[in-house]
Amino acid sequence: MKLKSVMKIGGVGVLSALVLAGCGSKSSQSGNSSQKVKWMIPAAISSMDASKITDLYSSQVLNATNEGLLKMGENKTTPGVAKSYSVSKDGKTWTFNLRKSKWNDGKPVTAKDFVFAWRRTVTPKTASEYAYNFANIKNASKINSGKMSPTKLGVQADGNYKLVVHLVKPQSYFKYLVSQGYYFPEEQAAVKKYGSAYGTSAKKNAYNGPFLLKGWTGTNDTAKLVKNKSYWNAKNVKLQQMSIQTVKDPATALNSYESGKLDFTTLNGTQVKQYKNNKDYHDYLEASTSYMEMNEKKDSIFKNKNIRRALSLAIDKNQLASKVIADGTKGAKGYVPTKMASRNGKDFASQAYVKTGVEYNLTEAKKLWAKGLKQTGKKSVSLSLLCDDIDQTVKNAQFVQSNLEKLPGLKITIQNVPFKNRLSRSQNGQFDLVLSAWIADYPDPSNFLDLFTSTNSYNNGHWKNSEYDALIKKSESTDANNEAARWNDMVQAEKILMNDQGIVPLTQEAQSTLMKSKVKGVQFFPTSPQWDWSKVSVK
Asked: What is this structure's pTM?
């Protein structure tokens, strides 16, 4: 993500890769007052507007308070608001049959709420960062570019409990898309009531999921998830409350965990060494890649391929992973992470691997740097490196800074800002270099590769390559129903991205955590499935 996106470098990643599953003892499932959990997130909630959320932590809270047509588990979907669905033979028409569920104000959730929400998301004035994910719905692109009325979007309510979606072309992973937060329904009355303030605080929202958000003012670092008695499956939700605290400093978070103020915390590299043999310790490799973007629109020097390649070759990704982060994180093999997608037993990352796109070679980096400076008429360059203000992220930025400044004549200044500000500045092009990350929303390479097409709103560095664009387009049109051809299109696209050094992949993130044994049955998956709240319990 949502949103696809990791704390250690980019500010996205932890909880969406956790699925709380499994059951506790009989006493843990009674729904009593002991069913409370104290959780932490390393960055504050930025929004609760499903059409505007861009970060992982806000999305995690949204997934607890709201629900879409389907819910995503490990490489599969399960029923959500839609109790069933069907797909036409040509793959272009999807029909969802909705169950009778309610908003927290008691009003029914209907097909019209989905129509309203999707239209709002693709409307240009909404400025949704995820509008591109609607491009395959009939007329969505024309609407998003301001050339057509939102009422022409290819989605319609057939009565209150049937939603019909018309796609431009077949899309096998559409079932994963509709499980994401940006496809959630929105209560029209609430959106109109709060206007531009909709989703800016807990009170200015509407909820149809397992929990209600309480206590979030829009700027504070604490909130609560309280069981929503109006939720259609409330009888099977055992957990009564989750207290959420934003804790940016790993030492503070660990102290809070040890003193009983938290039931869960993430660990940094130093802490991992100390707690790796602890009974509460868990780790897993995420389907997430941290990377560095270069702002070609702001700084013309980045249009030079030799400059881009030099910057990449100057950074020792493996040392960053093993010595600085040191929690199981690996040096990136490419942009699409390993073990996320495979075909015929072959991993996508291995098939798309381009050694020069991720290797460390300072000698070659200096040669290309000198060549690039000569081509651009520069003798020295001063650049800013934008990153989050979280402790581990700053340490990573300092490592990248020290590596890059080994290139003669290059000066790097670190700008560490709050997560929310980093997102905003990235989107507005207010950076030279920026550390970011992406975590998979669904298990398909397109989830990553779509981001770096020329017109994608997440392509903050404005790298452009017409051949890359053509391959991505081909994978989603001509070859959409040909699995082998589509796969090959995406493999070739990744190779172009790496050969041209459109971005600099840094690491594939891992996550190390401590969690109290009373929170039962946590499973760790590489992608970002949504929590199965009906199975969460406290011992």
From this structure: 0.76
